[in-house]
Design a protein that fits this description.
This protein has 315 residues and is α/β, with parallel strands linked by helices. Helices cover 42% and strands 14% of the residues.
Length: 315
């Protein structure tokens, strides 16, 4: 199956990067190279380093970016970008794009085990290596399962679903996506099943745990910001509230200056803001895009610009 990925808010992401033809840019999530291609074609003497941990994505991105000698694709998690960039003699970049979440290919390719709509072995590994969804579902105890369902899936029936998983696997391992989906459906009230597919939050939670997504995002944000030059921009596209909340709070922390208690008459910490928000509220998909791609419904785009040493953009 060909690797496909609809590039959500493509124009908004590219505009947010404010690309210079001689700049150095990072696409932390190359996917099908939609965003990467648009960045690369705007560069002349500049350079693009595109990361992805999925071997399928890397293969596709290298093929699609072969037209652009200024682009290089690296198979790695974006949480490791600083080390990979330093290894290439790059000490600073002018922009970083992170398009988070699962790709269209990963959802649509049943064999990858991400979807609750198709029967496949429980997998969900973006890197196709290491711990899988099968391992989580069949070896984690009820408390650990409940915790991730609540924390990563915001699932109100987390305890009941976790208990059902543990009971089922005592007789036989849970091997496929539809086996797990049936367990989830049987564990929630009928009213919940009528409103929407009740499997979404459980599958999301397990996928996040399998790929250590929240820790990767936390580390990746710090690595990306550390690599930005003054005036450089970090553009982040999120698809669920946990990601967006982390990005929002991290951005605000970089934009905050003085941390003295409010009762102090004058500042004594002398801390300066490290960045400024480009958009105070998240950008969302246009009506046209929402009609064309339902997966853009939950997307939120946030952009931050790094400041110079004195708290102002270095022009």
């Amino acid at each position: 199956m060909e690797f496909s990925h609809y590039s959500v808010m493509l124009n908004e992401c590219i505009e947010g990067l404010a690309i210079r033809a001689d700049g150095i840019y990072v696409d932390g999530t190359a996917g099908g190279a939609g965003h990467s291609s648009e960045i690369a074609r705007r560069l002349t003497t500049g350079k693009l380093i595109a990361f992805d941990q999925d071997p399928d994505a890397v293969k596709t991105a290298r093929e699609r970016l072969s037209l652009y000698p200024q682009a290089e694709v690296v198979q790695d998690n974006f949480r490791n970008m600083a080390q990979a960039l330093h290894a290439r003699g790059i000490s600073g970049v002018d922009g970083v794009l992170l398009d988070l979440g699962v790709s269209s290919h990963q959802l649509d390719e049943a064999s990858r085990g991400f979807s609750y709509l198709h029967d496949a072995p429980l997998d969900m590994r973006m890197s196709q290596q290491g711990m899988s969804a099968y391992d989580v579902v069949n070896t984690w105890d009820a408390d650990a399962l409940t915790q991730i369902l609540r924390e990563y899936g915001e699932e109100p029936f987390a305890y009941k679903i976790a208990q059902a998983i543990v009971r089922k696997r005592t007789s036989a391992p849970i091997k496929t996506t539809l086996e797990l989906a049936d367990l989830v459906k049987a564990s929630v009230p009928a009213a919940r099943r009528r409103e929407k597919n009740p499997c979404k939050q459980t599958f999301q939670a397990i996928r996040i745990a399998v790929n250590d997504e929240m820790q990767s995002l936390s580390q990746g944000l710090d690595e990306a910001f550390s690599m930005l030059r003054p005036g450089g921009r970090l553009v982040v596209l999120t698809f669920h509230s946990l990601e967006d909340r982390m990005v929002k709070h991290r951005f605000l922390s970089w934009c905050k200056g003085c941390t003295c208690p409010p009762e102090f008459p004058v500042c004594v910490c002398h801390k300066k803001p490290q960045a400024k928000l480009v958009n105070r509220k998240p950008v969302t998909a246009s009506e046209k895009e929402l009609r064309e791609n339902r997966r853009s419904t939950s997307a939120k785009l946030r952009i931050i610009e790094k400041l110079g040493k004195e708290g102002s953009t270095d022009e």
